[in-house]
Amino acid sequence: MDWTQIDWRALERLRADFLHGKPGRANYWQSESDLSSYDVTFAQRIGWKWDYVLAELGRRGWSPPEGEVLDWGCGSGIAGRAFLDHFGVRSATSLRVWDRSALAMNFAAHPARTKYPRLTVHTGLAERPAILLLSHVLTELTAAQTEALVAFAATAQCVLWVEPGTRDASRALIALRGRLRASLSLVGPCPHQEGCGLLTAANERHWCHHFASPPPGVFQDGHWSRFADLLGIDLRDLPLSFLVLDRRPVPAPPPGTTRIIGHPRIYKSHALVLSCDRTGVGERKLTRRALPEEYKRLKQGADDPLQIMRCVKDQVVSLQPLSSFESGHS
Predict the structure, then answer these.
(1) What is the pLDDT of residues 143-162, one digit of tens each?
(2) Same domain flag for 110 and 241
(3) What are phi and psi for residue 193, nearest 5 degrees?
(4) Which residue of 18, 26, 162, 261 has the lowest C-beta tally within 10 Å?
(5) For 231-321, where are the E strands, in sequence order?
(6) Is residue 151 situated within a structural domain?
(7) φ, ψ at 94 (rounded to 5°)
(8) Domain that holds residue 277
């Protein structure tokens, strides 16, 4: 399907379902046209979030184990395709797509088979997946369904989980992180294996969220402009929360590794950075006078959220992207 064939009324109905639907509600896919229209629009935005997460995993030097990839709650299958596009099909013995909707499973399987003709694509669940992909599912599950999913996730070799960047979704992922780290190592977004520093009373108002950016051409594309106008969508940064876990040991990052949460708050003379490291989560101050180049990078929004940070009390005295640190020490 292309933009000229989109069912805009179906997208409006799906948008209302996403915003106001209740956990455990009935399947909202009514036709293949629903899925086709969704795949060209909403699914692409989810794909950009996956691209953000997968690119970070690449910068961390992480790669998946060999085995079957299961896209659980697949919808149109964008998570599985994004994963295979990034890591390639050589590490995947097969792709399996599952959804409560048979219509969605069949739809998701078709573009995957077309795009990766040498890869076996199955529909339905696997007992113990090697690589489990979960995408935007928490808001659709009842408490009992979430419990069952967490138990299932604990059997996987690795779990890649992406959710909206809302406070509720983030806090839900943090709770699941605490349970799953009993059997799986933390890969991201955390730069450590400790408990979550956001669970302290002082950080109650914060949540762990990050921002993916759409491809630059989106803002000059009339089709995306129409999509934004009709459905009330902001085409700028895409907030997300994510969690990646692995049964294999995860190498410790260099000392001082921290992760910037959300966007820094930029002021005329300084920036306030909410950052997470093995000591916890706190707000650190970086002054323009002391670190002009680092301040400029933060203001431009160009920095990798993974940094090597050194502080004196809560004052940042040095800041260096983790990727440049590692390339300089390779």
Answers:
(1) 999 999 999 999 999 999 99
(2) yes
(3) -110, 10
(4) 26
(5) 238-246, 257-260, 265-266, 270-277, 280-287, 306-312, 315-321
(6) yes
(7) -170, 165
(8) 257-328
